[in-house]
Task: structure prediction
Amino acid sequence: QVQLVESGGGLVQPGGSLTLSCVVSGRSIFSLDAMGWYRQAPGKQRELVAAIRGIGVRNYADTVKGRFTISRDSAKNTVYLQMNSLKPEDTAVYYCNVPTSQLTYWGQGTQVTVSS
Result:
């Protein structure tokens, strides 16, 4: 059983930065094939923001490339999403995601609001 707990969301002005954290329990993050961050804005479908796989292959949505960075810390069993140059359109609930061969696990989500 994998459990995911996100934190780090909040209210930030346009151009600001936030770092989201996802603490994983139940499995070592290096035993997982992949981990990702998704987001869902009001009235929109949930979308992939960033993912990290294998030895550290990363991919990003076009809308966040160059601004967001996904990383992981094995000592803390935590995955991070560093978000810079935030825009109002980045406002959403952000979810940590772990796909496995049996189940896909989700965190409870953390709200990010970008507004002046």
